[in-house]
Specification:
Helix content is 71%, strand content 9%. By secondary structure, it is mainly alpha-helical.
Amino acid sequence: MHNKNSLLFLEACLMAGDTTLANKVAASVKKDLQQQVKFYNGLTGDKVEQMGDEKRMAESYLQGLEQIQTIYNPRIQIPGKMMAADSVNK
């Protein structure tokens, strides 16, 4: 449940335009989710099956994190190059 709330908070930060806070939250959430997946990958025996749903949820939240970041920081494609929208001079 805390993962979902963290992603909602991240999206709120991005919607408010607070990129400094959003970057901190995103880094923290990503690290936490990666650690969870690493833990689940290290399980053996019956625990693999018992914790399978938790692992899938953590992986799903990681994908959600990437989607949120893509939505709020779209990349501009130039043939042969890819640049973040933030880096474009205004």
